[in-house]
Amino acid sequence: MCGDALGLAHPLTAEGIVPAALSGRLLGEAIAAGEPASYTERLRAHTIYRDYARVLELRNLISDIPRGDGDAATPSAPPAPAGRASRLASRAIASGFAWMFSGARLPAPRVIDLVLAGARRAKARAHRRS
User: Fold this and answer.
1) In terms of Cα–Cα distance, which of 67, 57, 74 is closest to 112?
2) CA distance 8 to 43
């Protein structure tokens, strides 16, 4: 299975054109190489799909952070940043959306991996304490 039939989509936007086309290309390359069984591993190894996995884990990590009165079930919007911070936040959001629709590599994947590994360790410690 490949393309839309495989159900691949961006973890934040759910857009699927880039992952569908890429999965089709990877399947074609696997077949052309005479190694159709390598298709699944080619998907797992591709940088875009690894980046999607990082983004999904980041999204899940962020959704676990309590907001407002400390209750994650009743989130409230954080206060809007002021001045320069607001411009930087707007630029980061715009850059993030441009990245999501471009199919480009996620910036600083190793840094993100370190943050995610630290979050996993902290979550495991908290789980052991409870």
Assistant:
1) 57
2) 10
